[in-house]
Design brief:
With 218 residues, the chain is α+β, with helices and mostly antiparallel strands. Helices cover 34% and strands 19% of the residues. The strands form 2 sheets. Strands 3, 4, 5 and 6 form a 4-stranded antiparallel beta sheet that branches. A hairpin with a 2-residue loop joins strand 1 and strand 2. The N terminus is likely disordered. This is 3-hydroxy-3-methylglutaryl-CoA reductase.
Amino acid sequence: RRAILLGCSAAKTQWSECSNAQLVDAVKSRKISFYGLEQALEPDYRRAIEVRREVVSEIASQQPEAKKKQSALHTIPFENYDWNRVVGQNCENIIGYVPIPLGVAGPILIDGKEFPIPMATTEGALVASTHRGARAITRSGGCKTLLLGEGMTRAPVVELPSLEEAGRLHKYCNENFLSLKEAFESTTQYGKLNSLKCVLAGRKAYLRFRATTGDAMG
């Protein structure tokens, strides 16, 4: 078995020739990383997920309390899903998906156009109450929207040793926005710093960064 496994590890394209049991052993021996199964078995993402589920099941079965009952993993579906739209984009270490009931509320009239509101939830009466609110807004003439600004904000607090140093930080932020913008944007492929506001409260400096995030994830 070890000889077959080593033979399969010669190149990435050969992993697909191994059995699931051999692939599980390869993950456990770290010849394939736990998160690298999709890359090793590309483009067969369904099988990569199947192997990962077997690894997780094997680990779970070794727990003392798990020996008396079946793993809950078998209740989590993974078949009949387009994993090409997920791998490398929306989730890592995939073992399946969780079906959530999907209802629809509305339509709601916004800026002269009607929009249905799909809502995935397990909270009873949530869709019904939203539906009633949407109908009330629509029957009263709808609602108007106005965009005053766009951006994501983050507001860290910096406590300085003295009031004088807090003042110097405040002055630096006000006079060196372009330098701070360059440093900020060097850490991200998509983010663009639009503004920075510094407010002092004693020795504490409250910094509010506002940036557009583009196509950034996370």
